[in-house]
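Request: How about a record?
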Amino acid sequence: MFHNVELLPYKKNSPWRKVAVGTWRKLGDPSVYGEMYFDARPCLRVIEEHRLRNIKITPTIIAAKAIAVALDKVPSANVLQRFGRVYRRKNVDIFLQVATDDDGEDLSGLVIRNCHKRPLDEIAEEVRKKVVEIRTGEEKEYSKSKGIMELLPGWFVGPLLDTLAFILYNLNFWSPLIGAPRDGFGSAMVTSIGSLGLERAYAPLVPYSRCPMVIAVGKIGDQVVAENGAPVVRPMIPFSSTIDHRVIDGVGIKRLVASVQEYLKNPY
């Protein structure tokens, strides 16, 4: 048997966790929303330094690395919920959403495996290559899935996705015969809304992905903030987050935010 996700041994849920899982039985209803603004100056310096070396680093790539580093430091938030139990993931993989056409009508995504261990320039190069493969049709898994979805009637897609999610995540079974990528959504999703000119927006959790966290990276802009008791203007990068409250609570969120902030102070 091939496991779809590599999981560590099950650790008994706390009473609160059992109540949370029992209270919210579907992924679509336990959403917690929050936003944070971080000083963007270190990120802008890194982006400019890489640009001088002809390497394109985007705020989204830095955000993906920051989230991955935070999940590595807070493993209790790097989890998968199945059959009323919360399992910790062995790896930290980040899903990045990408547009596959110039009109933005067709969306797909890619997964950066072990993102917390990868340098920014390596992540950027992998993203570049995978986006080209997706857009040109060279990415076989995406092309196959897209072809199947185009043939199916709309009413059948929902039940099919639910069935695949049950097999892949509830049963934790994967085979090439299924026709879906192995652990295709990772630990967290990161998407760019700044490229659309937006500062804040909340992306929804995707039920069939079993992914408990979606981060929307907004447009960097100047804001007035307090520094040493005085108002100053600083470029700030906004993160809008949607989190599954069944598996990540306030304490976990606090620790994640602190870790993200620590990383963004020095993205190297």
Observations:
- The chain has one domain: 15-265.
- The mean pLDDT is 88.
